[in-house]
Amino acid sequence: MQAAHSILDAHAAPLHHITSSLCQQMQNQDCQNEGQQPQPVVVIATGGTVTTFAALQLQLQEYVHEQVHMSILHRQHIEDLMQQYLRAEGQPLEVGCSSNGCWPGWLTAARAATLAPGCAGLLAMMDLLGVDEVCVSDNDLLDGVVAEMTEAL
């Protein structure tokens, strides 16, 4: 986890601002719900980083939207992926399985270079939210805007 913390140090100020605001909102919500049964928290994550992690966790040889969308991404897999990438860093990315790990053909070397920082950021977010897994959405904000516009018609 030391690698995750050193990667995050470069982005500490903006991340602190965002997370402080999020934590304040969560505390306000907790105060409003005092005396009630806590509701289960489902964190939905979207974007290229989490969808890439999900596809790697599922060991997809080809990226398949239907399998990635709404899959569950577990903390342990993210930590394992980060360690695997850090061991392979600086070595050529080989498609298939090798001593550097198993990498599918759809994962480019440029994309693989973003995995360790992406893992660090996702793990930090999960720590702040107190969750060990996230639900992955392969849809994004634009899909939601289009859906709302369609419903309004």
Q: What's this entry about, in short?
A:
The chain is built from 8 helices and 5 strands; from the N terminus they run H-H-E-H-H-E-H-E-E-H-H-E-H. It is mainly alpha-helical and 153 residues long. The longest helix has 21 residues.
Average residue-wise pLDDT = 74
Write down the overall geometry: globular
Helix content: 55-70%
* Category by helix and strand content: mainly alpha
Uncertain regions: pLDDT < 50 for 5+ in a row? 10-15
Q: How would a crystallographer describe the biggest sheet?
A: 3 strands, mixed
Which sequence of SSEs, written as H and E, runs from N to C? HHEHHEHEEHHEH
- Total beta-strand segments: 5
Number of DSSP helical runs? 8
Assess the beta-strand content as a share of residues.
Answer: 5-15%
Distance between the termini: 49 Å
Written description of the protein model:
A hairpin with a 2-residue loop joins strand 3 and strand 4 (101-103). It contains eight helices and five strands. It is globular and about 50 Å long. Helices cover 58% and strands 11% of the residues. It is mainly alpha-helical and 153 residues long. Helix 1 (2-9) crosses helix 7 and helix 5 (75-88) packs antiparallel against helix 7. It starts with a helix and ends with a helix. It has helices spanning 2-9, 12-32, 48-57, 65-68, 75-88, 109-112, 115-129, 141-152, and strands at residues 44-46, 72-74, 96-98, 101-103, 133-137. The strands form two sheets. Strands 1-5-2 form a three-stranded mixed beta sheet.
